[in-house]
Description:
By secondary structure, this protein is α/β, with parallel strands linked by helices. It folds into two domains: about 20-25 and about 35-470, Alkaline Phosphatase, subunit A (3-Layer(aba) Sandwich), CATH 3.40.720.10; about 480-535, Arylsulfatase, C-terminal domain, CATH 3.30.1120.10. About 25% of the residues lie in helices and about 15% in strands. It has helices at about 65-70, 85-95, 130-135, 205-220, 245, 255-270, 295-330, 375-385, 395-400, 425-435, 460, 515-535; strands at about 40-45, 75-80, 140-145, 160-165, 190, 195, 225-230, 335-340, 400-405, 415-420, 425, 445, 445-450, 470-475, 480-485, 485-490, 500. Strands 1, 2, 3, 4, 5, 6, 7, 8, 9, 10 and 11 form an eleven-stranded mixed sheet that branches. A hairpin with a 2-residue loop joins strand 12 (about 445) and strand 13. Helix 6 packs parallel to helix 8. The radius of gyration is 22 Å and the shape is globular.
Amino acid sequence: MKKHVNLLALSAVLIPAQFSCSSISNKQENPTGDLERPNIIIILADDMGYSDLGCYGSEIPTPNIDKLAAEGILFTQFYNAARCCPTRAALLTGLYPHQAGMGAMVNTQAEKPKGAYQGYLSDNSVTIAEVLKLGNYYTAASGKWHVGEERPYWPTDRGFDNYYGLISGAANYFDITKAKAPGVKRHFAIDSTEFLPDKETFYMTDAITENAVKFLQKAETKDQPFFLYLPYTAPHWPLHARQEDIEKYKGKYMKGWDVLRKERYERMLGLGIIDDSWPLSDRDPKIMPWEDLSEEQKAKSDLLMAIYAAQIDRLDSGIGEVLAQLDAMGKSENTLIIFLSDNGGCEEYEILGSDFWGNFWDGTAVPGSGESFHSYGAAWANLSDTPFRLYKKRIHEGGISTPLIVRWPDKIKSKGSINNQPGHIIDIMATICDITNIDYPETYNNNNIKPLAGKSLLPLLEGEENIDNDLFFWEHIGNRAVRHGDWKLVAKSKEAWELYNIKLDRTEMNNLIGSEPEIAGKLEAEYNAWAEENGVK
């Protein structure tokens, strides 16, 4: 990858050696005690695209997240599992989603099938919280769970001492009783008790932040290291934001998605996030050119993106509060912070010319308030995923590429560096086992535990330069892919395979399936073997 002048003055690229947790060779014979183990915070954004942060090229200011990047390592080729539930399962367990029982989405039926698509975390998996409890960590989570709708698969059933947040998926940010469809219920809980927030004062993002800070304050009273899992719901639809935040962004998107995609692309080149040999992908054919919209449509579209930007603004502010609390505790230096997103931008629910969302535009609801219910649609998701193709649920780069930022002042010496090493969300559990010197268990609660699928990123944090992490698999609702080295075989559900050289063409513009049949055949065989082994349909 060619190097570029970086607007954050990020330093040289590091390329890590990576090892699975089960093959760690540098573990101490005699651990020096719980208090010397690092604290850990994992922050997960929801439905936020690859280029939606300032440090990844966005026009949305994200100073607190940018600060993490300037003081840590910014990854350019890290992958999630394409959607909320599969990504959360892979993150929490270090397994592919199917191995953890979450190949699709949550299953709320009374009679739950067992297997790759059962819809709740498998008994043959362990969560990061359960593993860290073996090392005497205090464990807490504030935010969206979405990997087990019913008991006994809630956070406090899976290793968390304390929990506050949304057990279910997408919900109204101001009043969780207002669901997107009749009869849909959203579970919200404090620890293991169902809880209904006060709709007069509640705003989801703020509440998640406030309780994360409370858990940090509780951790300060304990003679233990701590783990805080902080999965926000922002900026997932519905587009709900504080009106004062929306006002900051109204009118800023009247340039339109075509101009803004090009501007983000140029900033990303300048930051060194992407290679200038990768062209900006074409506008999705189903999206109208901005100039073809009426003035009314432009104004409505500008407002939608303004609300989305406001949600990210409030997310960043919340992270700032968490960082301030960490500083006040004197714990910043020995705290590992990991920030990422669960999938690419979300194209769901087109808006132009549609009245599907009822009173959003009819004057009875204030856009962005809890009375409205909307998404920003494919056009703005195409901006969020700059420079890539496609969106959440898909396995093309726009659906699975995530920003990843890692800060750990005590360990990371090359602060503000960019890393181009491919990695996958399954690597996070292995990394945590490695840095805490806690063995990943073979059995837990009398269940045999599946071996880790991921590899440790600790050698990267220590500055090593070998590469040993280049084979990854995906499947979600029929969308599927395998990446091995520089090659990626990918397909939409029920469609034919496509083949891309990711090193030369990460925006997936030049399908080589016809000219490289041997490579395609090898990758397909690898995918089929993985799918067979893991119960993938």
